[in-house]
Design brief:
heterodimer; A: alpha/beta; Beta Polymerase, domain 2; five-stranded mixed beta sheet; two-stranded parallel ribbon; 8 helices; 22% helix; elongated; B: 169 residues; alpha/beta; five-stranded parallel beta sheet; 5 strands
Chain lengths: 269, 169
Amino acid sequence: MRAYKPKGNVQAKPYYTDRYWQAPQVAKFDVESDEVFAADLAAIKAKFEVSDAFIQVEQMTVWINPSDIYGVLELMKDELEYTQLSEMSAIDFLEQRDEFEIFYQMLSMNKRKRIRIKFSIKNGQAVDSVSNLFRCADWSEREMFDMFGIEANGHPFMKRILMPYDWQGYPLLKTYPLEGDEFAAWYEVDKIYGKEARDVIGPEIRDTARIDRYDSERFARLGHEVPFGMDPDKEENKDKAQSYQEDGGVFLIKKLDKESSVVIDDPQR
Amino acid sequence: MAQHKINYTQDGGLPVALTSIDKIANWGRSNSLWALTYGLACCGIEMMASGASRYDFDRFGTIFRASPRQADVMIVAGTLTKKHAEFIKRLYDQMTEPRWVISMGSCANTGGMFNTYATVQGADRIIPVDLYLPGCAPRPETLQYGVMLLQKKIRANKAGNAQKAKRLM
């Protein structure tokens, strides 16, 4: 019997498997160490439940409940001067914790500070759309839906943005293979020619190191085009190397004369 | 009255050139290869450079057209994504026959470095390709040389025989 391999994360490669090795952690600092962040956190805590908050690399991360996200961002935009949503997306932690991490990266130009709002949801759960507050969230939430399958409630146009509308699967999930599943492998053939064309067109060639032993015959050397199967290196074939024009030349077109042609060596001419 | 005089006996005869149907038809086809502007990625920049003044495609009779109905040759210049695959087929079908396809660069030939779920692994999975140009991206000289080779291929056709329609399947 074949040994069982876990298929939860098919992209994971064990580059380093020391059993005592621990991944380095970015140092976390107390929020009270920064006055501006402490005031912001107090304002958020006054209205919403905050499960965790800390400072990492001079940015504050605030963990909240999924249902509070619209209210928190509204508060931050209207009262705390965090007027820009730099980016938002999801991170796949389905294998480790069976949940997605959703993050919203906020920027205040007045305070010159960045805050990251985070919460986690279960697989299949939807988030509240914030595209009414920040127009840029419109496309970001569509991309999140396209890549992870996380829907945003209240979004005006909840459709795929990068992949075609009839695509199946969510490519940024850890369980999605980089070279595509079977649907992806046959997508264009199925769509254009139909499934019965699979046998005619054949599977994709994904082996980058593949060498076809006929390639040296099929592809001519530049400037030494010879008929199919002829070896241009052999002495008797030396004068059979063809130029791109016929021997007699073509009507109205001057034939290239290699002796009288000039090779321009200076690239800066 | 015209003041100039035509000397019909000069240069050995009348201003008439004799040729065969094959040659005149292939001459017309091969020396006015109008190409579809089809830059999909960075190879498109090299294709534009080929058309611009330094390399000057116009002197080969290759003029870029913005409509597939006016084009003879489709230069697939760049990465062909799976989302775009149906449109390259539609554009190819809109070109009138005889039509030719040049696959320009690694991405259009084999998918190139994009060994991913979203990239078509070679344009010849969708449409029949006449000429593959190597390079990432090929220089304008390569594209010009490829067009010359395509001209040579066209000149080898027999005009009397109706061209066999190229179909992938």
